[in-house]
Amino acid sequence: MILRIEKIGLSIEADDELLNSLVEKGKSHYPNEFGGFLVGYYADDNKHLHITDTILPKSFKTSIYNFERSTKGIEKKLGTFYKEIPRKFYVGEWHTHPDNSPIPSLTDISAINAIINNKNACLANPVLLIIGNSKTKVDFGFYVWFENKLYRYE
Amino acid sequence: MDKSLHLDTVIKTHQITKEKNLLDKHIQKKNEVKEALENEYGGNVYAPFNSGSYAKNTAINTKFDFDLVSPFKRNAFGANGTLKEMYEAVYDFLYNKYKNDAEVRKQKVSIGLEFYADSDSAKIKIDVVPGRELNQDQYKDDENLNLYVYYKYGNIAADSERIKTNVQSQISNIKDRADKEKDSIRKIIRLLKIWKNTKYNYPTKSFFLELITIKAFDNITITGNLWNKLKAVMEYIKDNVTNDGFTLKDPGNSSNDLSDTLTDSEKQQLADDMKNMLDRIEENDENIKTYFPENPKFKEEDKSKNRYNTNGGMPVPPPKLNFG
Ligand SMILES: [Zn+2]
C-alpha cells in the first residue's frame, strides 16, 4: 500500500507481503504485544519512503500492555541492509496493540522522542507503525514524526 | 559521518538548474556573441557552437564554462592567412565590439570575454575559441579544425601553429559517457571540478579532468558508493598521471595527447594534491568538506525543504526502547 500526506511531503509505501508477515508475527505473541525494527530507503528526492523489511528483536520483554525491545544482536543485520543497493536502513519501529486501536500511547510518544534525540539514530522523522490486532481483525496505524508532532497516514 | 551522503549534497547544491537566472543570461549572451561573429564574418564562418561543460552536461553552478567554438573557413583570412592572423583578427573584432562591456583577454587557445557585472551582479564569462577548417569547405565533411595556441599550454609551445582536433566529437564523446554513467562518471567529474574550483587558476583544465576520469573508469574496476568511486579515481590520478608514457587521447584526434596540456611539474602538483587529499580524508572524514564543499548559497534551502532520509551515516536504533 502507498499512503500520502500532502502537508508533510512524504509518501510511505509498504509491501503487502511485509505487512502480512508483521501481522503473523504479532499473532504468534497474542495476547501479548510484539514488535520490531522497520527497514527501508528514501527515494524520489527523499519524498518517498519505501519500507521493505523488518528486523525482529532477539532480546525483548513483553506483556499485554508493554513491549520492550533491545538492539542486542541486530547490528550485523543492519550492516547487511546498509550495504544493499539502494542502501537500506533503520527508519522506525513497529509494535502491536492487542485488542486495542492503533493509537500511540504516551509511552510510544516518549519512545519516538528517544529516537529523535538519539545521535546515533540519525533520524529526524522516524516512522511508527502500530498494528491493532484482535482475534478477528487487524488495523494499521502509520505515523511519521514531523516538526514536533506525529502525523497519521490515513 | 557518511562521506557519500556529503558528496551527494555537494553535487545537489551545485546543480546548474539552481542558477536558472544566471544560466539563462549565459545562454543569451552566448547567442549575442554568436550572432555578432556571424554578422561580421558572414559566409566565412560556419555556425559557432557551445563546447563548454554545459554542452557536455558536466557543468556546476559555480562555474559555467561557456566556450563558443567559431569554425572559420580555410580562406577566411586570405588564402595564405595564418592561424595567428585568424586569432589576432578575431581578438581585434571582439575587443572593439565589447571593450566597453567586458574585459577582453587573450588566453591559451581562446579569447575570454568577461562581462562587467550587471545590476544583479551576475558575472558572465564566454570564451571564444577560433578554429579553422583544414581545407576550403572540408569542415562539412570531417568537422576538423586547427586551433591556434596563443601562449604556452602545458608542454605545447606558444605560437605553435596548430592543434588539429574535432571539437564536436570531443563533446559527444564526453557527453555520451557522462550521460550513460551519470551516477558514476558524471558525478565524479562534477566533484573534481568543484574541487578544482576551490583553487584559484589551477593549471589542470576541466577537459583534462573529464578525460582522466573516463580513462580511470576504462582502466580499473571502480565500484561501491560515491566516496569509494571518487577515491578510486583520485588514486588512479595520483598513481598514473606522472608516469612516463601516460597519455590522454584526444577524442577529437587520437594523435593528440592531451596529457601534454600539463607540464611535468603541473602533473606532479596534481598527483601531490590527490595524495594530500586522500591522506587528510583518511586521517579525518570531516576534511572531505574542505576539499569538496557544498555551495553555501543553496545549502540552507536544501535543508529546510527536505529533511527526510538519514542526517548522518547508518542509523542505529536506540539500544533499549519501551512501547505501550
Ligand atoms: Zn503502543
Could you outline the blueprint of secondary structure elements for this entry?
The complex is a heterodimer of chains A (154) and B (324).
Chain A: E1 2-5, E2 10-14, H1 16-29, E3 35-43, E4 48-55, E5 60-62, E6 67-70, H2 75-83, E7 89-98, H3 106-116, E8 127-133, E9 138-146, E10 149-153
Parallel strand pairs in A: 2-4, 7-8
Antiparallel strand pairs in A: 1-2, 3-4, 3-7, 5-6, 8-9, 9-10
Chain B: H1 3-13, H2 20-41, E1 49-50, H3 53-56, E2 66-72, H4 83-98, E3 102-106, E4 111-115, E5 124-132, H5 139-142, E6 145-147, E7 163-165, H6 167-180, H7 182-196, H8 206-219, H9 226-240, E8 249-250, E9 253-257, H10 264-283, H11 288-291, H12 296-305, E10 320-323
Parallel strand pairs in B: 2-5
Antiparallel strand pairs in B: 1-2, 3-4, 4-5, 5-6, 6-7, 8-9
The complex binds zinc ion (ZN).
Write a short abstract of this structure.
The complex is a heterodimer of chains A (about 150) and B (about 325). Chain A has about 150 residues and is of the alpha+beta class.
Which two chains share the most extensive interface? A-B, 45 and 20 residues
The first-to-last residue Cα distance of chain A is 11 Å
Find the structural class of chain B using helix and strand composition.
alpha+beta
Content of β-strand of chain A: 35-45%
Round the Cα radius of gyration of chain B to an integer and report it: 22 Å
Poorly predicted runs of chain B are 301-306
CATH superfamily annotation of chain B: Beta Polymerase, domain 2
Tell the overall outline of chain B.
globular
CATH class of chain A: Alpha Beta
Ranges of chain A where pLDDT stays below 50 over 5 or more residues in a row are none
Number of domains of chain B: 1
Number of helices of chain B: 12
> In the CATH hierarchy, what is the architecture of chain B at level 2?
2-Layer Sandwich
Note the gap between the termini of chain B: 33 Å
Kindly state the number of beta strands of chain A.
Answer: 10
CATH class of chain B, named Alpha Beta
Helicity range of chain A = 10-25%
Tally of strands of chain B: 10
Order of helices and strands of chain B: HHEHEHEEEHEEHHHHEEHHHE
